[in-house]
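Example record used in the benchmark description.
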Amino acid sequence: MGLKKKIKKFLYIRKFSKKKYLTDINKKNILITGANSGIGLALTKRLLELDNKVLAIYRENSQNLTNIKDSNLSIIKYDLKKINKSENFENKIKETSVDLILNCAGVLGPSFENQQIENLDFEKFQEVLMVNSISILKIIQIMLNHKLSTKNLEVLVNISSELGSINLNNQGGNAYMYRASKTALNSITKNMSIDLMARFKTIVFAIEPGNVQSGINPGGTLKADVCANLIINLISSNVQLLNGKFVNLLGDELPW
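Model output (structure tokens):
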């Protein structure tokens, strides 16, 4: 790695460094999607450490979750590419009152070079949209049909991406699937922030996590556990100010 890249990496990590993290989230029932890897796994581990009960959704591989030995962890298999095959999730959630949802599920789809108009695979496109955006609507629909699930729902956080911002898109050219899915998630987030606030006083917002190490970004600069702590920090401090917003890990607002 060249000197310029090292300096850039150092400054990036330093920007998000915190001497102290708030830890006001405890004794909550927390639903986490995409919980077997990346940000979702890091949040699962940290929130269990803070004495919460975590319902962790995974798609296929649960190895990282099954390696966690904690009686407060419940593992739920639910393939978000097939959102109508939800019986397993419904059976798990119908008797549970959820306080916090952290929607971390996400897929990149084909490489960005294979997301140009000329080579778009529209079946893959549908899958990316399903996982990255539409699935959260299905999850909330199921929970609303089992009213116990949402009666205490305080906060819903969607992990989005800067690539979903229409205003910030000055590159174009590729990433049609991923960009569109995150733009759709941002739109859903905004709509939910009005709808669920009016109905349940639920705070809903989207987070741009930045360049974080994850399954779809293994070369990321910021470690997933640092990202998890920063997300928890956001939720623990003045979260009511974030309703209906799209923010980075420091709480700075980004354009939709």
